[in-house]
Amino acid sequence: MYMSKTMSRKLTVLFVPINYVGPINSSIGMAEVLKDSGHRVVFAARNEWSKRLKSLDIEVELLTEETDEVTGDSAAANAEELKSVLEDKTPLEKALECMSILLNDVIHDSDKDEQKLKQIIKRLKPHVIITDHIITLPSIAGSGIPWIFSYSSNPLSLDTGYEDKRLPPSILGLSINSNKNLWEEYRQQLKNARKDDWFKYKDWLISNGSPLVPDDFLLWVPSPFANVYMFPEELDYTDVRPLPKTFHRFDCMKRSGNEDTFELPDKLKSRSGKLIYLSLGSMGSANVPLMKRLIAILSKSEHKFIVSKGVKHNEYELADNMWGERTVPQVKVLPIIDLMITHGGNNSVTET
């Protein structure tokens, strides 16, 4: 009865995604469904996303000063922050370095937004807040407003807030059938890599009045209201590790892409062969040596390719059997292709 009454009235829903491409895209997917159901949807976002969100008829509360000129670029900034991780290293070396860099950078960015976010929440008075982040935000946890923790990454990495040792540690790409004797060793190495910054993070949470602080060396606290994540049911881990009733899985949080248009370029229309899409996401495509290697291999194929070139698009050229740009409208491209080559990003997998 309570739920039916709640859903029958117009709610104001505030989205607070981290300033990364993936979380913002999946948040847009949820926001479109809520907006189409008659609810008011508002994003707390930085200026660089304002134009795109407004093109979807989504209200924006800016965390940064509004300007006509967009000087920031989250994809480029994220790639720059983690450029050393993209170098030729083992998966374990990359994961440990990522852990040591990521938490410090995220706290720094979140601290810049925290006071403005508190003001937005106080003024807007939303009925519910949905945050897709990798840390707990004091402004949300201490708001007194029901909030939902949304997770757009692979559910293995729920272990940064809800740890379960029946699964391998995240980030390393380990299979459920990998050597279990090494799991705990890797898990401890990952925690040690973020240990120093975690104590700074704990102090930051407390100094900003957060009523919630994660357990030792974890990054976020599950919401007591609801936690949502996206992943195909067939690939999920719930048969090995059942989740609490406050966790809810969705097959996808696919955005409509209605703001985009796409027509197959003439150079590909006239070619024979299957149509294949290559996308390594906003981070993987920043690995220029890898992209050059893939381009060289695929140039020998009898098929034709659409390539999402990424933030380093000016640093390499495509072969004759390819067309691409810095970004392509993925949601529009997927229905017309025969095959996708992907880095395995969660938005890409679930949208495909």
TrEMBL record:
The lineage of its organism: Eukaryota, Metazoa, Ecdysozoa, Arthropoda, Chelicerata. This is UDP-glycosyltransferase. It comes from the Eukaryota.
